[in-house]
Design goal:
Layout lengths: L3 E8 L6 H11 L6 E6 L12 H12 L6 E3 L2 H4 L6 H11 L3 E8 H5 L7 H7 L2 E4 L24 H10 L14 H8 L9 E4 L3 H12 L4 E4 L13 E4 L3 H11 L9 E4 L10 H5 L3 E7 L14 E6 L1 H14 L2 E4 L5 H28 L4 H22 L8 H4 L2 H14 L4 H14 L4 H13 L6
Parallel strand pairs: 1-2, 1-4, 2-3, 4-5, 6-7, 6-8, 8-9, 9-10, 11-12
Antiparallel strand pairs: 10-11
Helix pairs in contact: 7-12, 13-14, 16-17, 16-18, 17-18
Length: 462
């Protein structure tokens, strides 16, 4: 009698997500595979805190129901005593089911940590491994698996838990199977307790804005000037570093020497810096992250409502940052990128440079003899209309004027006028004309004609 070929797919499944279902579907499609058994961990060998076992069983049963009878959800690890060691589980299952031939499926990220597994080499010698690729994990070698397996999507239960606990809107939540999304969300989204006291280092534009907004929300706040000596002991559970970028690292090193730093949430407000700038605090047990408001702030009078804030940090820091955003009415947006400098450059490009461009426009009109106040009144509605169009149409769809019409004669006339009236603005006009043509998708021939005109204006980059 032929033995059944069963693939065991183990994990915490805390919670199950669509990448898990993708893996199960891939396993079912393998030639010769009769069944796939999912083995949720009962008592994690590394002490990982997990949702209740029966809750994860129920989620798995509901999520895999459409896959049919070839998929089984096993309670085996809860039935046997002791920690969930994979070798012991496979050994016991093989003894209980002598009519079955087992293989074991894991992700390449788990394979990279195989040196921590109990009797891993013996496990690999007795049972075939099927290793799925994982983004960022070293690829498995041919010796590790039966045959190459696809790379799983870049989603993790850890990221889903963080998104759910933070209460933030996140695309990550779409990776929860719709059959279990409500149940999982109900479990992981806690009842929100009142936000605890917040201590703010810095009383400038950003620090003053958050201090006032949090106080209006009923949050207890203590704020000190960045140059002042803080209290001997800071009891607040959340510390915000609203100080200049160059001050963050030395301040973090100083705060890390405080015995109360362990367990505190420490958030900086810098746009271009990641939480690694707070490494000394993380090393002593603080939860670190960043909260960057995408808005020009002006102290206590600033309105943070509906302002987007870029968030990053460990799970607890992210939850605290999200709670601050909710309290002040801002919109927290977790940053999915490691390169915060690029994120910050996008903000500078889209906002800070507007100030310089606006000043350039004012100086050109002043060169024509128009008073500054009147020039400001003339240009402000134009700028506001452009911003409104940008919000409505997005990107280059909001473009108007000669570069939208591919009007090279107008560009040439502008260059001549600027050379005579406001030569300090000429390099910016040249650079932005070239960039606009490229972003607007001008045909190559038209761009070549534009380059000739720009070169004639004395563009050093032509």
């Amino acid at each position: 009698m032929r033995k059944r070929n069963i693939v065991l797919y183990g994990g915490a499944f805390d919670p199950p997500h669509l990448a898990h279902l993708f893996a199960v579907t891939a396993l079912l499609s393998r030639e010769g595979v009769d069944e796939v058994w999912l083995l949720p961990t009962a008592d994690h060998v590394f002490g990982k805190d997990m949702a209740p076992f029966e809750a994860r069983i129920a989620w798995l049963e509901a999520a895999t129901a459409p896959l049919g009878a070839r998929v089984k959800i096993s309670r085996f690890e809860a039935e046997r005593a002791g920690l969930s060691r994979t070798y012991d589980t496979l050994d016991a299952l093989s003894a209980r089911h002598p009519d079955a031939h087992f293989a074991f499926a894991i992700g390449a990220d788990n394979l990279a940590a195989a040196h921590r597994w109990y009797r891993f080499e013996a496990l690999r010698a007795r049972w075939p491994l099927i290793v799925f690729g994982r983004p960022g994990a070293p690829p498995p070698t041919p010796a590790h698996h039966i045959e190459p397996s696809p790379t799983l999507p870049d989603v993790s239960s850890t990221a889903l838990r963080a998104a759910l606990r933070s209460g933030l809107e996140s695309e990550a939540l779409l990776w929860l199977p719709s059959r279990i999304r409500a149940a999982v969300a109900a479990y992981y989204t806690p009842q929100r307790a009142a936000l605890g006291p917040v201590f703010i280092f810095g009383t400038g534009r950003a620090g003053g804005a958050f201090a006032e907004a949090l106080r209006r929300a009923g949050v207890e706040v203590e704020a000190v000037d960045a140059r002042a000596t803080p209290p001997t002991r800071i009891e607040a559970p959340i510390w915000m570093l609203a100080v200049p970028d160059e001050v963050i690292a030395p301040l973090a090193a100083q705060l890390a020497t405080r015995p109360e730093a362990a367990g505190r949430v420490v958030l900086h407000l810098a746009g271009r810096l990641g939480r690694e700038i707070l490494a000394p605090l993380a090393a002593v047990g603080a939860h670190t992250g960043g909260l960057h408001p995408l808005q020009a702030l002006n102290g206590p009078s600033s309105d943070l409502r509906d302002v987007y804030c870029g968030l990053e940090g460990d799970e607890i820091a992210l939850e605290a940052a999200a709670a601050i955003c909710r309290a002040v009415g801002a919109r927290g947006a977790p940053l999915p990128i490691a390169d915060k400098a690029a994120y910050h450059a996008a903000a500078v490009f889209s906002a800070n440079f507007i100030t310089a461009l606006g000043e350039g426009g004012l100086r050109i009109l002043e060169a024509l003899g128009i008073a500054r106040d009147e020039a400001l009144g003339m240009l402000s509605p134009l700028q506001a209309g452009t911003v409104a169009q940008l919000k409505d149409k997005g990107g280059m769809g909001a473009l108007t004027g000669p570069l939208a019409r591919v009007d090279l004669e107008a560009v040439a006339a502008h260059l001549d006028a600027l050379r005579r009236r406001a030569p300090e603005t000429l390099p910016a006009y040249v650079a932005l004309a070239r960039l606009t043509a490229r972003l607007a998708g001008w045909p190559e021939a038209r761009r070549a004609s534009l380059d000739e005109i720009l070169a004639a204006a004395g563009d050093p980059h032509a």
